[in-house]
Write a structure and sequence with these properties.
It is a single chain. This protein is 47% helix and 10% strand. With 133 residues, the chain is mainly α. Strands 1-2 form a two-stranded antiparallel ribbon. A hairpin with a 2-residue loop joins β1 and β2.
Length: 133
């Protein structure tokens, strides 16, 4: 038998790969856009009276952004009730309202407790976080 010539390797020509076109990514709810900011600002600006000192009525928001409640809950569980109350005071009352409370020598213990309970209840409504009793 005659020797055959070595086989030449076949080169296979392949079609160029198609680049996948980028599909739009579904973002779900976008929670930090301008519309959300406007809604939260409106929520905070809808206020109701909490107390009056020297003829000036001080108010708190009727409802608060959920992020405030989450932060207060986290502070309460990690750092204690005082930290959560401090956060509530900072978010719900103006500095003028807080100063007025501190300067008013006729705030009774009952009134003080009512104000503090209203702040805590507003930022951490009963049953809003955790199991219902």
């Amino acid at each position: 038998m005659a020797a055959s010539a070595p086989r030449k390797p076949t080169t296979r020509k392949t079609a160029p790969r198609k680049r996948a076109t980028a599909k739009p990514v579904e973002l779900g709810l976008v929670l930090d856009d301008a519309a959300a900011r406007a809604e939260v600002d409106e929520l905070i600006s809808d206020r109701e009276p909490l107390f009056t000192i020297g003829g000036v009525t001080y108010t708190i928001p009727k409802r608060v952004p959920p992020s405030w409640s989450v932060k207060a809950y986290k502070l309460a569980t990690e750092q204690g009730e005082a930290a959560a109350l401090s956060f509530a005071v900072e978010k719900l009352l103006t500095s003028e309202a807080w100063d007025a409370l501190g300067d008013c020598e006729t705030v009774t213990p009952t009134a003080w407790e009512t104000v503090l309970n209203a702040l805590v209840e507003r930022i951490l409504p009963s049953g809003a976080i955790g199991p219902k009793a």
